[in-house]
Amino acid sequence: MAIWLEQASGDFEERFSAFLSTKREVSDDVNAVVKAIIDDVRTRGDAALIDYSARFDKVDLASAGLRVREEEIDAAVAATSADVLDALRLAAERIEKHHARQMPKDDLYEDALGVGLGSRWTAVDAVGLYVPGGTASYPSSVLMNALPAKVAGVPRVVMVVPAGGGVVNPAVLAAARIAGVSEIYRVGGAQAVAALAYGTETIAPVAKIVGPGNAYVAAAKRQVFGQVGIDMIAGPSEVLVIADRDNNPDWIAADLLAQAEHDLGAQSILVTNDRAFGEAVEQAVERQLKTLSRSQTAAQSWADFGAIILVKDLASSLPLANRIAAEHLELAVADPDALLSGIRNAGAIFVGRHTPEVIGDYIGGSNHVLPTARSARFSSGLSVLDYVKRTSILRLGPEQLAALAPAAITLAHSEGLDAHARSVSIRLNRGG
Amino acid sequence: MAIWLEQASGDFEERFSAFLSTKREVSDDVNAVVKAIIDDVRTRGDAALIDYSARFDKVDLASAGLRVREEEIDAAVAATSADVLDALRLAAERIEKHHARQMPKDDLYEDALGVGLGSRWTAVDAVGLYVPGGTASYPSSVLMNALPAKVAGVPRVVMVVPAGGGVVNPAVLAAARIAGVSEIYRVGGAQAVAALAYGTETIAPVAKIVGPGNAYVAAAKRQVFGQVGIDMIAGPSEVLVIADRDNNPDWIAADLLAQAEHDLGAQSILVTNDRAFGEAVEQAVERQLKTLSRSQTAAQSWADFGAIILVKDLASSLPLANRIAAEHLELAVADPDALLSGIRNAGAIFVGRHTPEVIGDYIGGSNHVLPTARSARFSSGLSVLDYVKRTSILRLGPEQLAALAPAAITLAHSEGLDAHARSVSIRLNRGG
């Protein structure tokens, strides 16, 4: 049973604020362990990777080899069913097309004074993609993380994935091939992150590391940040569904459960202006829970973090939605456009009754790596922009320098930076 | 005396690698102190700010008031010389014009299937700008951090600045007025960062915190990250000058010293293909050092971290420059365009002999907040993009859902996520 919050009740603001600040994640303090692993990989390289993989993943990389060979990827593709391969290819095509529109353009121009100014975008030289092992090893995530890098023109995309018991999910390898991943290594955990950041005999270092992982992987990413870039540290997933009473309660219940089944920290929130509809959804959730393969996870996260918020009218949902700043926001209402323009904070918005969030997870074309835990207030989902960087360019001739020099010299002196002033004045042949 | 590295010598790669990994910063472990301050501000609010300001800044905020009043800003503007005000206004105008070109455009479209896709950009609701106190309190930095927020359309830009001994640099207040800062509070350190992140009775919380600061401020920003967004944690500044022998050695020496005077961790590197020119620059540095107000700082950072790298030819400088990935890169050569296209990693490039880096610090129009410590390999300078976030939008009707459903359902089942599959299939009237 999820909690109910009613806007009309006197303690709503207090209860809503408390709800907003609920922590859904216990982050174990694994920093010391992770630091030791990183130091060891920096010192011993491949030998450390082999040792940790034997211990944590029960796999003998000394004989299997660190790098996954082309013929192994061939075999994985052959072992993946045709309909999954077709679905991955369709998804890849749609993701690639959508992300191609995100590629920023260089902007080089001269202003009225003749000063050359500009922004030039270049791809990151090499990117490492972490893929979790076991049941959280999702081929769709491989596409979502690797394809924007390919679109950005990253020359080298390296994937690491732990081979628990020697096995890597074949569909993950197939997705990597479809997404144009350049190299795959069967290593995971903090040791894989260390190898990507600092390099070993076999794995050349990258400039940026992306992708989800457990507490050890997250801690390792934080620790190597600076040496390399990292993407956001994703928290548990969440969905906010704003729905009027003219929805089929079963559809909305299914959407809430799609989120809840992810993991124990997942959060599903329904905002509605109709109490009876809210109750109908709640009953539909209970019914559907009985037939889910992951019903235990879904039931638990719905009970712990699920919520039904009853608002006075749909317009009242907007300020709440902006404070929640959900990763995923569904607008299942008769006139979604009336709400759409009022949403400022959301990772992705799914518009109308026929756009379940799951379409965005797989096949819509937009990215499914999105800001969690209210961070949509200040950050964006993964995009091509995460794989490029901008260099500014400034170009002056003697005339432009003469025009701008006085202001630069004035400001330099006012900040007490004499050498700054001289670096400009000396070029005016007026001495230092 | 800076070190010399010669590409022609046998141990160059080894020495260059060691040079690249030189740490220029000792980060004190202030995490425990900072955590206590943050917790205290969260608990006691304004009262904690008043206590810490009395202790660290020797200022009585209970009587002065936390917020800087409009008439105080009026007085600061009146106390700033006309030529400094004019220079700040010219800088602001140029910065604003340049940054207006960075504003990303929404992209909403329908694909061939009729699926609505899109990216919508919105400004961050509220931004906090940290400005250091004392000698590092630079009005130019206020412009560089605040104006892109204004261009982005951030409704609320809050500045915090410690008032050591009760005083805030008048030019900093004048710059804040020129840059359109909405609120100014005379509080600094970890306590100011905590107030911006969590709010107090007087200071409403923001969604993102930017701006430079000391070790306490940097640690506080790291600790509140997640609650709010933060910009990069900037390290000491650096310049790489690629110069041929046809430069005036005094000009290049002045550029190296403009960087070196910043602080003890600053780094100035000359790459040249002419030994005699390198020696002439070295001598010019020694001469100019004698007449600088900050000669002690400049001499020390030049001695500790300065370098002259002698390359075989100018083209050989490109791979080195890409590995150094300097914050600032000057191309003081006869044909800068021949090198420009080969540079992949640099925060900003200053093209030709008449573009000293200092122009970019103040008046060029581009931003002077740039990636340090080799992070230009994976990150960019501050821009309008740091003050906006992107929401993706997906919109399907029944036909589009029917077209994409099979692939989504296939992938959901292949990942073992039954509720995901049901959330799509239930809308096809084929049951769960």
TrEMBL record, chains A, B:
Cited function: Catalyzes the sequential NAD-dependent oxidations of L-histidinol to L-histidinaldehyde and then to L-histidine.
Listed name of the protein: Histidinol dehydrogenase
Binding note for cofactor: Binds 1 zinc ion per subunit.
HAMAP family assigned to the protein according to its UniProt record, in alphabetical order: HisD
Enzyme Commission number(s): 1.1.1.23
GO molecular function: histidinol dehydrogenase activity
Functional pathway: Amino-acid biosynthesis; L-histidine biosynthesis; L-histidine from 5-phospho-alpha-D-ribose 1-diphosphate: step 9/9
Catalytic residues (UniProt): E327 (proton acceptor), H328 (proton acceptor)
Co-factor(s): Zn(2+)
Residue positions binding Zn(2+): Q259, H262, D361, H420
Catalytic reactions of this protein: L-histidinol + 2 NAD(+) + H2O = L-histidine + 2 NADH + 3 H(+)
Residues the record lists as binding substrate: S237, Q259, H262, H328, D361, E415, H420
Residues involved in NAD(+) binding: Y130, Q191, N214
Keywords tagged on the record: Amino-acid biosynthesis, Histidine biosynthesis, Metal-binding, NAD, Oxidoreductase, Zinc
Lineage: superkingdom: Bacteria
Family in the record: Belongs to the histidinol dehydrogenase family.
